[in-house]
Amino acid sequence: MFRVNGVDIAARVQGSGPPLLLLHGHPQTHVIWHRVWPALTRRHTCVAADLRGYGDSGKPPASADHSAHSKREMARDMAELMTALGFDTFDVLAHDRGARVAHRLALDHARRVARLMLLDIAPTLDMYEGTTRAFAQAYYHWFWLTQPAPLPETMIGRDPAFYARSVMGGRPGGLALFAPRALAEYERCAGLPGWATGICEDYRASATIDLEHDRAGRLAGERLRQPLRVFWGERGAVGRNFDVLGLWRAVADDVSGRALPGAHYLAEEVPEQVLEEAAALFH
Q1: Could you tell me the keywords of this UniProt record (predicted)?
Q2: Given Cys at both, which of 99, 115, 213, 218 links 121, Cβ 3.0 to 4.6 Å?
Q3: pTM of whole model > 0.85?
Q4: Concatenated DSSP letters of 82-145
């Protein structure tokens, strides 16, 4: 556990070589990397962190403007974590919510992030502004979790493990994709005090203050300058509903990527392909 930016951040650190920060998505933890971890740690010093509000990391109370769970604050957590570990510059491999944090991290701390590999997201602002009925039905939780407290928190709190299973199991492949020990860990963390507030505030921030930061940044000419590789699931909702490469090329200078033969949880569904692409980028 590391105390950074006023919050406790749980992180697993292992391996040797250039530093690689790994960030997970919703409703999971750093455990998502378990199928790629052995290979990655042979080539890198890997730092797999739980985002604030998730896993065993600290769960700050909600703030009126949701700034305590903004991607800017989450990115600052990770920048300070890497500083505490003695890494000035580093690469980032991130999925889902963690990839949104990584996007902001690479903008706000551009000198420190060398290269980025993002899994199954398009830029948050474009996804909200381009929402269709099909996307809203596939990603209903984007809109339900943003409802005013305590509605979603109360409903999730009645059976948080059921909520976590329903989100993960509702995608192509179902719960059979997940290793039993990993699934048990996601369920354990879903039951921790403050988890429901943390995940709701994460999404409320993305629908409010994060969009303000993104719009202001674009008006100021903010762009990703680092090499960026993006991948999405060929059976997932992101690729079906958005021009992933086109949207990233509008906000970044050096972008490439493609669909992988999975849906959403790519590091657990198609770990061999994720490792192959990571080796090509983080050489």
Answers
A1: Hydrolase
A2: 99
A3: yes
A4: HHHTT-SSEEEEEEHHHHHHHHHHHHHTTTTEEEEEEES---HHHHHHT--HHHHHHTTHHHHT
CA distances to 49, 113, 225, 248, 252 from 221, rounded to whole Å, are 30, 19, 12, 14, 11
91, 96, 202, 210: which one is catalytic? 96
The single-letter code of the amino acid at 58 is G
Regarding predicted confidence, which is higher, 283 or 254?
A: 254
Both tokens assigned to 5? 């930016």
* CA-wise closest residue to 53 among 180, 145, 159: 145
Which tokens in the block code for residue 191? Answer: 């039951």
Distance CA 117, CA 231 (A): 8
Question: Position 246: which residue type?
Answer: G
What number of CA atoms fall less than 13 Å from residue 24's CA on the CB side? 29
In whole angstroms, how far apart are CA 230 and each of 46, 51, 184, 226?
20, 21, 29, 12
Predicted pLDDT at 272: 97
Rounded to whole angstroms, how far apart are CA atoms 259 and 236? 9
Q: Tell me the C-alpha to C-alpha distance, in Å, between residue 235 and each of 26, 52, 130, 240, 254.
A: 18, 29, 19, 8, 25
What confidence score (pLDDT) does residue 283 get?
83
Computed on alpha carbons and rounded to an integer, the radius of gyration of the chain in Å comes to 17
CA–CA dist 147, 169 (Å, integer): 23
Q: For residue 268, what is the domain's CATH number? A: 3.40.50.1820
Are the C-beta atoms of 27 and 142 separated by less than 8 Å?
no
Does the annotation count 96 as an active-site position? yes
pLDDT at residue 94, as a whole number: 98
65 is known as an active-site residue: no
